[in-house]
Specification:
Number of helices: 8
CATH class of the largest domain: Alpha Beta
Helix content: 25-40%
CATH topology of the largest domain: Nucleotidyltransferase, domain 5
Number of domains: 2
Order of helices and strands: EEEEHEEEHEHEEEEEHHHEHEH
Length: 250
């Protein structure tokens, strides 16, 4: 059984990685971060990915949380990554670049797994929607603890565009929105999701939840809303937990 896996979270602005003990779900070294190259082509991202692996002096298995629909290691969509990724094997490209076996998973699904196995979602039954709010809005859907993968609820049509262009954290920053303005937008989006899915709760993740107390008062949707405790480490840890199941199943 693989106990230690290097988890790498490929985001729209940064690529972060740390070694994870998948038995107890903890980071065992300091996470390192590199900027996501622009444009985020397969070649440039793979080079940065490999550099991060080298920074950890790592030779073992690697998990990659990736900002796209991922099926059997293949990139199926591209919103916060170059469109040239579509149809390519993330696992093959990263593995060839870093010289290590790689398992890829949707980044929000990875973060959601960590929150459901180790965080506020542990033991929760019914329908749970996890939202990761950053450059875009990622989602992970769980029913009785089981992941329903690749939901991408940040890309549903809302307010005349896709939802993440209305209430992601980067929209708040670029639009210089107050916490009340942005929190109200986020609440409108949560209310829309509540009408569509009737979840038992929402769990919010991503760096913006470090400031949860500044906007939580504006989240008046008629369902429980929780902030994730794992913050930015969730993607790294969750990708490793997902990969451990894949590696150990081989």
């Amino acid at each position: 059984m693989e106990r230690y896996i290097l988890g790498v979270d490929v985001g729209g602005t940064g690529i972060k990685g740390g070694v994870v003990d998948v038995v107890n779900g903890t980071l065992v070294d300091d996470r390192k971060r590199l900027l996501t190259p622009k444009p985020a082509t397969p070649e440039s991202v793979a080079e940065t990915f490999a550099e991060l692996v080298r920074m950890h002096d790592w030779k073992g298995p690697v998990a990659a949380g990736f900002p796209a629909v991922v099926k059997n290691g293949i990139c199926m969509t591209a919103s916060n990554i170059e469109k040239s990724w579509i149809g390519l094997s993330i696992e093959k490209i990263f593995s060839e670049a870093c010289g290590c076996p790689v398992v890829a998973v949707n980044d929000a699904d990875a973060a959601g797994l960590a929150m459901m196995k180790l965080g506020i979602g542990k033991g929760r039954k019914g329908l749970v929607i996890v939202l990761t709010i950053g450059t875009g809005i990622g989602s992970a859907l769980f029913f009785n603890g089981e992941l329903i993968s690749n939901t991408e609820l940040g890309h549903i049509l809302f307010k005349g565009d896709i939802a993440e262009r209305y209430c992601s954290n980067i929209v708040r920053e670029k639009g210089d929105l107050s916490w009340e303005e942005w929190g109200t937008r986020l609440n409108e989006y949560l209310t829309h999701l509540n009408k569509l899915f009737s979840p038992d709760c929402f769990i919010l993740g991503g760096g913006v939840t470090k400031k949860y107390e500044l906007f939580s008062q504006y989240l008046t949707v008629n369902v429980d809303v929780f902030a994730a405790e794992l913050k930015n480490a969730a993607g790294t840890i969750g990708a490793s937990l997902y990969a451990a199941e894949r590696f150990n199943a081989k």
